[in-house]
Write a structure and sequence with these properties.
Structural class: mainly alpha
Order of helices and strands: HHHHHHH
Distance between the termini: 17 Å
Shape: globular
Strand content: under 5%
Number of helices: 7
Largest sheet: none
Number of strands: 0
């Protein structure tokens, strides 16, 4: 299996993605792109979510631990994952159930390897080291 992007490499990739539709601020971010950037910039600190800081984690770990379905569907869409899968992800994101359950369902249809492949193939990401 190809190595996963590092968190810093994912941050660079996300910063290159197209902006999603900005919404009236109901949280500290107005778009899912801003949400991703803010989350990744502070990933190795407690950040806005009071995380426990741990080193040695990569982008796969981050993706597999996101609880916000909107973050996952935005990333897949902006990265260029197939329209069919993105439509499924958006339906799940808008559906019933807890955020954790919906995020898990999205990851089952769009695993990290699919997102990373799209980021690399479409020129948003590259391995730095």
């Amino acid at each position: 299996m190809e190595r996963s992007l590092e968190i810093a490499e994912l941050l660079i990739a996300v910063s290159r993605l197209p902006e999603d539709r900005r919404r009236k601020r109901s949280a500290w971010y107005e778009s899912q792109k801003e949400h991703w950037v803010g989350w990744l910039v502070h990933y190795n600190s407690s950040g806005a979510y009071g995380r426990t800081t741990t080193s040695g984690r990569d982008a796969r770990f981050v993706y597999n631990h996101v609880v916000c379905p909107g973050l996952l569907s935005y990333l897949a869409d902006a990265a260029g994952v197939s329209r069919r899968l993105v439509r499924q992800a958006k339906r799940i994101a808008a559906g019933e159930g807890t955020e954790m359950a919906r995020a898990g369902a999205i990851r089952r249809i769009i695993p990290w390897e699919t997102v990373q492949g799209a980021l690399l193939e479409n020129g948003y990401a590259r391995f730095v080291a």
